[in-house]
Each structure stands twice: as C-alpha cells, then as structure tokens.
Give the backbone structure.
Amino acid sequence: MGAPFTMTLANIYMYEWEQSLIQHQQIRNELYGWYIDDIFMTSNEPVENIKALLDRENAKDPNIRITYTIHDSVEFLDVLIENIQGQLKTLVFRKPAAEPYIVPIRIQLCSDVETFDQERLNIEIALLLNGYPLNFIKRHLKQCFKNHNVMSIYQDLHAKTYKKLHLQLLDESLTYHTGSNPPEEQQQKQYAQTNQQCQTTTSKKQPDIIIHYQYESGPVKTFNSEFRKIWKKHFCYPTSSLNNVRLILDTRINKTIEDLRVNKKPPRNLLRNLDCNST
C-alpha cells in the first residue's frame, strides 16, 4: 500500500465519494456497508434503476472504477447474505481460494439457529481432522454456551434463545466503538460536554496533527488545499472535539543522489584504514 498514511488518505477520499450513495440509501431506508474496496447495498428498486444509479456513480470520478453484482445472494467480507422471500439470511462465507483456517464461532454472522448449528459442526469436523481430541472440543464448546447462559441452544437448538443471543451480540458489536445510541438531542449534549471537558483538561499547548506527504508536480500540488477543505467540511462541525486541533501538512522532497552520497556513512574498515594511515 506504499506509505503508512496511504490507507487513511484512501478512506478520506472514499468518504467524500460515497456520500451520494449513502444519502440515496438513507432516504429509502436501505442498508449500505463499505470496507476498503468492497461495498454492500440492499434495494427494492427495479434492476434497471439500480444499474443506472451505479453507472452514474461509476462515471463520477475517473480515479474510481466499480464493478457490481446484482443478485439475491452476495458475499461481503466473511458473510454470505441471502434474500429469501424478502428476509435477509446471513451465514459464514469462506473464499474457496483462501487457506483453510479455524475462526471462532461467530454467532453474529449466523442469522438462525440451524445455520449456526451447521457452522458449529463444520468447525468440530475441522478440529477433529486436525487432531484435536473430541472431549477437548466438546468441553470448550460447552464452556462457550455456559458463559452466555444459553445451554438450551447447545442441547435443544432453542430458536428463541438463539435469536435473543444473536441480537444481543450484534448490539454489543455495534456499540463497542460507538457506545450507547441516545436520541439526537441527548447525543448533541454529550458531544458538547465531551468537547468542553477536552478543552478544560488539555494543556495550554494546542494539539497538532502532522501529516507528511511527498511533494510532486501535477494533481498532488493541490493536495494541501483539497485536504483542508475536506477536513473543515467533515471534521470541524460546531460540537466537534477536533476544533481545537491544529492541522499541519508538511511536504517531503524526494532525495537526490547527492543527498544520498552526503548522508551515507563510509564502511567501518575504510575508517579504520584512514586512522592507521594518519598515525
């Protein structure tokens, strides 16, 4: 991926590009997911309208080209999503070309107890084929269900209990980074309080974010101004905690051959020979 900051720059670039798609999905109360170079969307519109939308987005930026698949079942990351009579069903997906490996039992990825039980059996068989004792496997599986107090799933495949656990773990994974999800007014108050606390507890020295990038002629010449526009538009809203952060964009010039020669340290044996000759 090049420089360590490349992925962050790509995320910022894509964040600007995808706003029209996000608004389109929000207006229609549809799903939208994006991770690196994969996008997942749901839609109840005719296929012709979906293709027209994606073709329009594809022509919006010459630096971004998308290829799409429209079907009632699609793979997104490690999840297979199926549309069964208007109901979305999810299960674990493994790419055929990927190396075989064992992953933890992902209850979040299996939308019903039957799918989850099949995934559990697949993992048990894989562990047995790799030489793990059957007692060892069953003991750890039971311990997993005991920890969540849902032994009825392990013993009887209780659908209601599984559904409750499935939703609980989904909520935990969604709120792990975002915290609780209060109403909008309360959320704005929390942002304002957090911002005020940050301003009162931080030191007098203004915090800095320093970004280094290689200076080149061409489109990169406008990187500084374009980046500051995106930063101000999306990260410096009234209640943002980044308002007191100073953004510094610093350029680095590619080294010349003369610079490399000057900074290169001579070999140790050459320095020793020089010392011997001088004495």
